[in-house]
TrEMBL record:
<keyword id="KW-0378">Hydrolase</keyword>
<feature type="binding site">
    <location>
        <begin position="216"/>
        <end position="221"/>
    </location>
    <ligand>
        <name>NAD(+)</name>
    </ligand>
</feature>
<feature type="binding site">
    <location>
        <position position="237"/>
    </location>
    <ligand>
        <name>NAD(+)</name>
    </ligand>
</feature>
<dbReference type="Pfam" id="PF00670">
    <property type="entry name" value="AdoHcyase_NAD"/>
</dbReference>
<keyword id="KW-0963">Cytoplasm</keyword>
<feature type="domain" description="S-adenosyl-L-homocysteine hydrolase NAD binding">
    <location>
        <begin position="185"/>
        <end position="346"/>
    </location>
</feature>
<dbReference type="InterPro" id="IPR036291">
    <property type="entry name" value="NAD(P)-bd_dom_sf"/>
</dbReference>
<feature type="binding site">
    <location>
        <position position="125"/>
    </location>
    <ligand>
        <name>substrate</name>
    </ligand>
</feature>
<feature type="binding site">
    <location>
        <begin position="293"/>
        <end position="295"/>
    </location>
    <ligand>
        <name>NAD(+)</name>
    </ligand>
</feature>
<dbReference type="GO" id="GO:0006730">
    <property type="term" value="P:one-carbon metabolic process"/>
</dbReference>
<feature type="binding site">
    <location>
        <begin position="151"/>
        <end position="153"/>
    </location>
    <ligand>
        <name>NAD(+)</name>
    </ligand>
</feature>
<dbReference type="InterPro" id="IPR042172">
    <property type="entry name" value="Adenosylhomocyst_ase-like_sf"/>
</dbReference>
<keyword id="KW-0554">One-carbon metabolism</keyword>
<feature type="binding site">
    <location>
        <position position="185"/>
    </location>
    <ligand>
        <name>NAD(+)</name>
    </ligand>
</feature>
<feature type="binding site">
    <location>
        <position position="347"/>
    </location>
    <ligand>
        <name>NAD(+)</name>
    </ligand>
</feature>
<feature type="binding site">
    <location>
        <position position="180"/>
    </location>
    <ligand>
        <name>substrate</name>
    </ligand>
</feature>
<feature type="binding site">
    <location>
        <position position="184"/>
    </location>
    <ligand>
        <name>substrate</name>
    </ligand>
</feature>
């Protein structure tokens, strides 16, 4: 059995059932796994996966293992780890360092243990693993061939490192692939955020005001689903182009300070810090729901919330209620962490099928490219991006039209 630091190995049978369910709804990754098992592109290579450790991630780890890799997993978020899934991975011979509810010190210990694995390739979510590699764990850097990043936040951090000249190996920007953000960020986030909010609060959405802070692809998805459930949607933005998009999509647009007294639900989707802060808390209505769908637990200013309130009471699992001296109470979901994962099961399996297929193909591309890929942030090649989309259509039994040679010639010509 692989090395591990986990909650309880006896949870493995339950976790394996979860992974099997996800796998049965991830045909692209399944077909890719069959191919990888034949050619073994990762033979002799070590891969560290730092993602939300739930069933879909588990299946990605097992797919890379089929391709010959020795795999270790570590959590990118202490509140999204599913202990039974992690136990199942250990039973499958995968090294694991994670458990639900890990403290800050435990989280850092797990990351360091994962780097002790001495990976050739990494899959990161948010940039914590890459940041640690380039900070306190530079001893591991020489052996890292490259990796891939899953999130918008992580790619922003990587580009900052690239700009400074500190990024030491190639990283594939999986989040920026069309087959990722058009589906994962929009439809995946849109559905899973409301799955998390609804199962946690057991409150109605129809007829209420939902304030979406950030109208990127994730924000678009959350807003679309809120509208579909009958909410009145208010959008807060700093980008005039995205604000115009929100207007033309039929939503109200206003500064957050104006939306604060109106909102029943607030969902942050920005990737920035202190997006909701003291001035907003002061004017929010009693029993407002605060949820974060950005990457880290910094979008909602929890320090200010604690300082302003008289007491905090956990009124339901994953609901912290902050009570104020004026009689109002504000409800923070999942400690301000990603509500769709910390209070739910994350994106649907069919969505993550495409995203994780891109991850697997991106790692394979890094190995096949050899020294041709320089240190820095790289786009997923179009042939991989569209190839994954085509594989999904095939798996679902759909066909699409093809250009004729005459049409191709016409599109390539500038002459009348």
């Amino acid at each position: 059995m692989a090395e591990f630091m986990i909650k309880d190995i006896n949870l493995a049978p339950q976790g394996l059932k979860k992974i099997s369910w996800a796998a049965s709804h991830m045909p692209v990754l399944s077909n890719m796994g069959d191919e990888l098992e034949q050619i073994k592109p990762f033979a002799g290579k070590k891969v560290v996966i730092c993602l939300h450790l739930e069933a879909k991630t588990g299946y990605l780890a097992m797919t890379l293992q089929r391709g010959g890799a020795k795999v270790a997993v570590v959590a990118s978020n202490p509140l999204s780890t599913q202990d039974d899934v992690v136990a199942a991975l250990v039973k499958q011979g995968i090294t694991a360092y994670a458990w639900y509810g890990a403290t800050g010190d435990e989280y850092r210990l797990h990351l360091n243990k994962a780097l002790d694995f001495e990976p050739d390739l990494i899959v990161d979510d948010g940039g914590d693993l890459v940041s640690l590699l380039h900070g306190k764990r530079r001893d591991v850097l020489p052996g890292v061939v490259g990796g891939s990043e899953e999130t918008t936040t992580g790619i922003l951090r990587l580009k900052a490192m690239e700009k400074e000249g500190t990024l030491s190996f190639p990283m594939m920007a999986v989040n920026d692939a069309l087959s990722k953000y058009l589906f994962d960020n929009r439809y995946g986030t849109g559905q899973s955020v409301w799955d998390g909010i609804n199962r946690t609060t057991n409150l109605v959405v129809a007829g209420k005001n939902v304030v979406i802070i950030g109208y990127g692809w994730c924000g678009k998805g959350v807003a679309m689903r809120a509208k579909g459930m009958g909410a009145r949607v208010l959008v807060c933005e700093i980008d005039p182009i995205k604000a115009n998009e929100a207007l033309m999509d039929g939503f109200q647009v206003m500064p957050l300070i104006e939306a604060s007294p109106l909102g029943d639900y607030f969902v942050t989707v920005t990737g920035n810090k202190s997006v909701i802060h003291r001035a907003h808390f002061q004017v929010m209505k009693d029993q407002a729901i605060l949820a974060n769908a950005g990457h880290f637990d910094v979008e909602i200013d929890k320090v200010a919330l604690e300082e302003m309130s008289q007491e905090m009471v956990v009124v339901r699992p994953n609901v912290q209620q902050y009570r104020f001296s004026d009689g109002r109470a504000l409800n923070l979901l999942a400690e301000g962490r990603l509500v769709n994962l910390a209070a739910g099961d994350g994106h649907p399996a069919e969505i993550m099928d495409m995203s994780f297929a891109l991850q697997a193909k991106s790692l394979q591309y890094i190995l096949e490219s050899g020294d041709q890929l320089k240190a820095g942030v790289h786009k997923v090649p179009e042939v991989i991006d569209k190839g994954v989309a085509q594989l999904r259509l095939q798996a679902l039994g759909y066909e699409i039209d093809q250009l004729t040679e005459e049409q191709k010639k016409y599109l390539d010509s500038w002459e009348l």
